[in-house]
Specification:
Layout (H helix, E strand, L loop, with lengths): L3 H5 L10 H5 L8 E9 L30 H25 L4 E4 L1 H6 L1 H10 L2 E4 L12 H19 L5 E2 L9 H8 L4 E2 L9 E3 L8 E3 L20 H18 L5 E8 L9 H11 L5 E3 L2 H9 L1
Parallel strand pairs: 1-2, 1-8, 1-9, 2-3, 4-5, 5-7
Antiparallel strand pairs: 6-7
Helix pairs in contact: 3-9, 6-7, 8-9
Organism: Aquincola tertiaricarbonis
Protein name: Chitin deacetylase
Length: 302
């Protein structure tokens, strides 16, 4: 039977925080930390043409073709790497904002210009799996191999190893142990249950590990959900509402907000204005600071 510690890693599930956590301020005295995450998955999606057993079934529509190559799906993802990436990246370059990239290893091998930008602009590369698939149900040997292979290609192409990890969908019961055994990882984002980071209890003499909760609501993937975002204003309006809800809370205790982006989604011409509006809004929020997830984890560790 699972215990509370197994499920929640020793977190207080009643929402109470230590005095140190309540008093924490982000750099510059800000109360709210904003984390932009650009997912680099194009080229790592399931594809029969790449030798995978099936094709990815969700792009602008939900439709699966199995057993043969799906060129409709493939070129939807290709759009993200070819056109969407440059459109999104330029926004962060022009604004001088820090950016975390959730990078799938197979995708990075096929889009090495992403690694060039990581080095040029000091963006953070975070491991996102070898392929854009969940490790749930895989063996520990398979999962450990994917972690090592992904970390190796990021290190080789970006010039530095990843310090964070984020799986598609669910992690496995072994994921955090495997990350800590691999070495070099100080955080993961395989959690959706809070507005703040939390620490795993150190065990066996290992250094502390930070968990940075992610968000699926302030995320452009809702453009692909029925009943989700349709126009650029839907995305910006929702994200700005979240920012404005957290700002007064953050006067009393720290808060964190993750904004998830995808090159093939927000990078479309009809959607990119939503990101522009969010960036402009943040320019007027002196009580909020944009940080990479790595910087947030280091700051939380003190």
């Amino acid at each position: 039977m699972k215990t509370t510690d197994d499920l929640y890693n020793g977190r207080r599930f009643d929402g109470r925080r230590s005095p140190q956590e309540q008093a924490l301020r982000w750099p510059g005295g800000a109360g709210l930390a904003i984390s932009f995450v650009l997912n680099i998955e194009e080229g790592a999606e399931l594809s029969v043409a790449d030798g995978d057993a099936s094709n990815e079934g969700v792009h602008e529509v939900s439709h699966r073709i199995d057993g043969v190559p799906d060129y409709c799906m493939a070129t939807h993802f290709e759009y993200g790497a070819r056109a969407g990436y440059a459109r999104v990246a330029q926004r962060f370059i022009d604004a001088g904002l820090p950016l975390t990239l959730n990078i799938c290893g197979r995708a990075l091998e096929r889009t090495p210009w992403v690694a060039d930008d990581v080095r040029t602009h000091a963006w953070e590369p975070c491991g996102h799996g070898w392929t854009w698939t969940s490790p749930a149900g895989r063996s520990e040997v398979h999962e450990a191999g994917d972690i090592a292979r992904t970390a190796a290609v990021i290190t080789r192409l970006c010039g530095r190893p990843p310090s964070g990890w984020h799986d598609k969908s669910s992690r496995t019961p072994a994921t955090r142990r495997l990350l800590r055994a691999h070495g070099g990882f100080i955080y993961d984002s395989d959690d959706y249950g809070d507005d703040l980071p939390f620490l795993l209890d150190p065990r066996d003499g290992r250094p502390p590990h930070v968990v940075l909760p992610y968000g699926f609501d302030t995320n452009d993937m809702r453009f692909l959900d029925r009943g989700g975002f349709v126009r650029a204003d839907d995305f910006s309006g929702y994200v700005i509402d979240a920012i404005e809800a957290l700002r007064p809370e953050a006067r009393h205790a720290p808060r964190m907000l993750t904004i998830g982006l995808h090159t093939r989604i927000i990078g479309r011409p009809g959607r990119i204005a939503g990101l522009d509006r969010v960036i402009r809004h943040l320019a007027d929020c002196a009580d909020a600071v944009v940080m990479t997830r790595e910087a947030i984890a280091h700051h939380w560790l003190g």
